[in-house]
Amino acid sequence: MRVSIVTPSFNQARYIETTIRSVLDQDYPSLEYIIVDGGSTDGSVDVIERHTDKLAWWVSEKDNGQTDALNKGFARAQGDILAWLNSDDTYQPGAIAAAVKYLEEHPEVGMVYANTNFIDDNGRAIGLFPAAQTDLRRLRQGYVHIPQQAAFFRAELWRQVGPLDPDFYFAMDYDLWVRLARLAPFAYLADQTWANFRLHNSGKTIAADDRCWPEMLKVHYRDGGSFFAPIVAKYYLRKLIAPLLNWRRQQKMQKFAQ
Question: What's the whole-model pTM score?
Answer without folding.
Answer: 0.88
